[in-house]
Specification:
heterodimer, A: 320 residues, alpha/beta, Rossmann fold, nine-stranded mixed beta sheet, five-stranded parallel beta sheet, 9 helices, B: 261 residues, two-stranded antiparallel ribbon, ETF_a/FixB (chain A), DHS-like_NAD/FAD-binding_dom (chain A), FAD (chain A)
Chain lengths: 320, 261
């Protein structure tokens, strides 16, 4: 059976959820071979094996943290040369897409980004994408070279599928371009204790209607009652009420959770582009004419300052 | 020391318009109004700010696209860029990201550059891979997704805000930079700027000017094939209630029914 390379996104050995989802998709196409790089690479093996990796290629070197993107491209290229995979799958983070693009160019391959589904086919994997603010769905395939495909978080379920997960050291020779862009400083983001926005099963977002940074506390309280991530519309971020890292929409994050709760968000195209593929959509807005209500499974026309705290209380009561 | 900046820009269908696909499954650019991709305005803005802080900077805006794409160039010129290059050729229709990066890279080399500045992504394709592809093709450092950028003494520095951390980056020129919408509000063209733009040079190049064969680009040369396109079915109309004191409870009831609570 053909092997499929999966690029592992991990933090010091802790594998992030989108990588486990990639293993689910990779198993549809062939035998997953994971590539884990940098500090803690070896520690990823157990989690990867549990989710279907037959092999885990690892390489630890300071270059992965000290220089931007290119060392990782060099390593993936070495892995492709060693494995001759049927496809290369990479999580669709900002960095993941850059790594995948440069790899594709080096391999003389086509690239598909932000796939939301993958199917096996005799002529190579078929990727589903959601385009134009999710108003269209396209199915595409790479027609030249080894397909390089990046996949959005929440595109597949994480499934246990125990496999060998044999760890092998990958041999990497860095190119002379690897050290071109130096990372001179790194400030880790302060943890909020909430799930990562793009990976969360539930997202609670606030918009213009929240009307002030201090009022985001009620959005956060609702999010915490559900174990959800907090999002914000561009209007709320531009007003300085919430950090840009939490922005949902065309110029922010694109999310696809099981449940999306929009509070005080009108639903402009820029916002819809980032949340329209959510499975269940709920909105709370004063304006009955707000376009967000065209998308919802359940909507409440009302003042979010009444409805959201009441909802939070009710959830807490029900959860006991 | 002079500094030659090339800003890559894209002419895109208006996102607030009714965007759709043509019969050959490429983006329909005829039936919807186009404009300079909003995210590229930030790239033009950063180029202008760099030029205000140093001497002898020349800003060239570069686009690849049909005749109408000149509108995007004109907008960038009226914001303050010095000159423009329009790569236009019938054989370009249907070109994918890999092919676009080839055309842009050849044009950038022909124009001459010390610094390339791009937006973080286009507002139509939204792949966000062209800056990385340009760096790979040009063989120069990639300093991308910057929320802050500065150029001094042949070095570009910037801040890249990632999910896990905020990173300070540094590279020697020549380099390829991309900037986010957090890099600073783009200026509006002034009346004077709009008038001045009419006199600024716009060069037109075709594929032969760049030594690119037709089969390397276009729909035929693409590295990916779109098999089919389907309009997303409209979401079925949901339940909408008016809050009369029970809205929060009703919503909780719905969420419980869906097993979210």
């Amino acid at each position: 059976m053909a092997e499929v390379l999966v690029y592992v996104d991990h933090v010091d050995g802790a594998v992030r959820k989108p990588t486990l989802e990639l293993l689910t998709l990779a198993r549809r196409i062939g035998e997953p071979v994971a590539v884990a790089l940098g500090n803690g690479a070896g520690d990823t093996a157990a989690a990867l094996a549990e989710h279907g990796a037959v092999k885990v290629l690892t390489h630890e070197a300071a270059e992965y943290a000290d220089y931007l993107v290119v060392p990782k491209v060099d390593a993936l290229q070495a892995a492709v040369a060693e494995v001759s995979p049927a496809a290369v799958l990479v999580p669709s983070s900002a960095e993941g897409k850059e790594i995948a693009a440069r790899l594709a160019l080096r391999l003389g391959s086509g690239i598909i980004t932000d796939a939301v589904d993958l199917e096996a086919d005799e002529e190579g994997p078929v990727a589903t994408q959601s385009v134009f603010a999710a108003s269209f769905t396209t199915k595409s395939r790479v027609s030249k070279g080894t397909p390089v495909i990046t996949v959005k978080p929440n595109s597949a379920a994480v499934e246990a599928a125990p496999a060998a997960g044999a760890v092998e050291a990958l041999s990497v020779t860095f190119s002379d371009k690897a050290t071109g862009t130096k990372v001179t400083g790194r400030t880790p983001r302060e943890s909020t204790g909430r799930p990562e926005l793009t990976e969360a099963a539930i997202v609670v977002s606030g918009g213009r209607g929240v009307n002030g940074a201090e009022n985001f506390a009620i959005i956060e309280a609702l999010a915490d009652s559900l174990g959800a991530a907090v999002g914000a519309s561009r209007a709320a971020v531009d007003a300085g009420w919430y950090p840009h890292t939490n922005q949902v929409g065309q110029t922010g994050k694109s999310v696809s959770p099981q449940l999306y709760i929009a509070s005080g968000i009108s639903g402009a195209i820029q916002h819809r582009a980032g949340m329209q593929t959510s499975k269940t959509i709920v909105a709370i807005n004063k304006d009955a004419e707000a376009p967000i209500f065209d998308l919802v499974d359940y909507g409440v026309v009302g003042d979010l300052f009444d409805v959201v705290p009441a909802l939070t209380e009710e959830i807490k009561t029900r959860k006991g | 020391m002079s500094l030659r900046i090339v800003v890559t820009v894209k002419y895109v269908p208006d996102a607030t318009g009714d965007r759709h696909f043509a019969d050959d499954l490429t983006v329909d650019r005829d039936d919807v109004d186009g404009l300079l991709s909003e995210l590229d305005e930030y790239a033009v803005e950063q180029a202008l700010q760099i030029s205000e802080n140093s001497d002898d900077v020349e800003i060239t805006v570069l686009t690849v696209g049909p005749e109408d794409a000149k509108d995007a160039l004109r907008k960038a010129l009226s914001m303050g860029a010095d000159k423009a290059i329009h790569v236009e050729d019938d054989d370009i229709h249907g070109t994918d990201a890999i092919g676009t990066s080839l055309i842009l890279a050849k044009a950038i080399e022909k124009a001459g550059y010390d610094l390339v500045i791009s937006g973080m992504a286009s507002t139509d394709g939204t792949m966000g891979v062209v800056p990385a592809l340009l760096a790979e093709r040009l063989g120069v450092p990639q300093v991308t997704l910057l929320s802050e950028v500065s150029v001094e003494d042949g070095t570009v520095k910037g801040r890249r805000d990632g999910d896990a951390a905020s990173e300070q980056l540094e590279a020697s020129l020549p380099a390829v930079v991309s900037v986010t919408d957090q890099s600073g509000e783009a200026r509006y063209p002034s009346f004077k700027g709009i008038m001045a733009a009419k006199k600024k040079p716009v060069e037109s190049w075709d594929l032969s000017d760049l030594d690119i064969e037709a089969e390397e680009v276009g729909l035929e040369g693409a590295y990916t094939t779109v098999e089919n396109v389907a309009e997303r079915p409209a979401r079925t109309a949901g339940t909408i209630v008016k809050d009369e004191g029970e809205g929060g409870k009703q919503l909780a009831e719905f969420l419980a029914g869906q097993k979210f609570i």
